[in-house]
Amino acid sequence: EDWASAFTHALGQFATCAAKPLACASAGPSAEAGHLQQLIMLMLECMNHPSYRVADNLVDVWVSLQDLPMDQRAPEMRAPLYEQLLQVTLERCQWPLGDDNVVDVDADDGDFDKWRHQSASEVITSCLGALG
Questions:
Q1: Phi, psi of 108 (to 5 degrees)
Q2: Are 44 and 85 in contact (CB under 8 A)?
Q3: Which of 39, 45, 106, 115 has its CB 3.0 to 4.6 Å from that of 52, i.e. a possible disulfide?
Q4: Cβ contacts of residue 106 below 8 Å, gap of 6+?
Q5: Cα separation, 110 vs 107, whole angstroms
Q6: What pLDDT does residue 71 have?
Q7: DSSP result, 105-125
Q8: pLDDT value at residue 109
């Protein structure tokens, strides 16, 4: 978990600084568009990491994009992405299940609570704004 958290911290720092230029990258089969798609898919995959701290490192990236109009974004940064992000975020807000598929309330060590009530609400707000 430590390496994943460190990785997403660095990824989040980079992507927050580069988010708007990347989101506006020209569409088409250019190398830039291909790299953008790979970066986006990596960030989306990291949002689904079992550790809430790992996903939490990327919240600022998604929030920083919320004031960029959809018509100025590359196609990869439009509604389908935000539908996927919303689905991942909502699934992460469910109580964790224990080994017997029963809600494991003891599994909550504070990270889940922080994710659910703070970080996820910011991401959900950004998604709903992007989806109109």
A1: -75, 110
A2: yes
A3: 115
A4: none
A5: 9
A6: 84
A7: GGG--SHHHHIIIIIHHHHHH
A8: 67
- Which residue has tokens 């978990």? 1
Which residue, chain included where needed, has tokens 């439009």? 78
CA–centroid distance for 31 within its chain: 23
Contact present, 115 and 52 (Cβ < 8 Å): yes
Residues 6 or more apart in contact with residue 122 via CB below 8 angstroms: 59, 62, 63
d(CA 57, CA 46): 9
pTM of the model: 0.82
End-to-end CA distance of the chain: 35
Distances (CA, A) of 39 to 29, 95, 107: 15, 29, 31
3-state secondary structure of 97: strand
Per-residue pLDDT of the chain (132 residues; tens, 9 = 90+): 789 999 999 999 988 887 777 777 655 556 666 777 788 889 999 999 988 889 999 999 898 888 788 888 878 788 999 999 999 999 988 876 666 655 555 555 688 888 888 999 999 999 998 888
SS3 51: coil
- Looking at residue 25, what is its pLDDT? 66
